[in-house]
Amino acid sequence: MDKKERVYVYIDGSNLYHNLRRSNCGHINFNFKKFVNYFVKDRKLEGVGYYIGQIRPIDNNKKSQRLHRFQQIGNIFTEKGVDVRIAIDLVEGAYENRYDKAILISSDGDLAPAIEMVKRKNKAVEIVSFKDNPSYLLMQKANYKHFIDKVDLQRFVIKL
Predict the structure, then answer these.
(1) Closest alpha carbon to 36 in 57, 54, 21, 50
(2) In which domain, by residue range, is 39 found?
(3) What is the pLDDT of residue 17?
(4) Measured between alpha carbons, how far apart are the two ends of the chain, in Å?
(5) Hey, how many other C-beta atoms are within 10 angstroms of the C-beta on 127?
(6) Residue 68 CB: number of other CB atoms within 10 A?
(7) Which of 38, 65, 101, 127 places its Cα 20 to 30 Å from the Cα of 71?
């Protein structure tokens, strides 16, 4: 009896969102389930992590108000701690044997050290990166690589 490879998908939400916008694919009409299943194929999906990093201000909480202001530059919000959270979850999943292969959808080179640690636990890492914004460092560290572009992303847009 063949045992299916167990995969866990980690999605850098901000990275995906900005690539969807650049590709004129609406994030509201984007079929995330179909997108994930496209990369999982016939393997066993153990879970999906979708990471975003916006801090919402809380009334009468000066710290949250200050952090919210720090994240906002004009009309643009920056992320705080998302790559660290992804890295921790990648490594923790490997050390707790939650998967055989991690599928990381990101172009953030800061995740390269986490990939190295995952591979030390004899787990594989599959990178899904965006053709117009790849991380060559991630590509070097990963066991498997996929490049996606506007045409690839548009296949997952729900036509209204």
Answers:
(1) 50
(2) 6-53+81-154
(3) 83
(4) 43
(5) 24
(6) 16
(7) 127
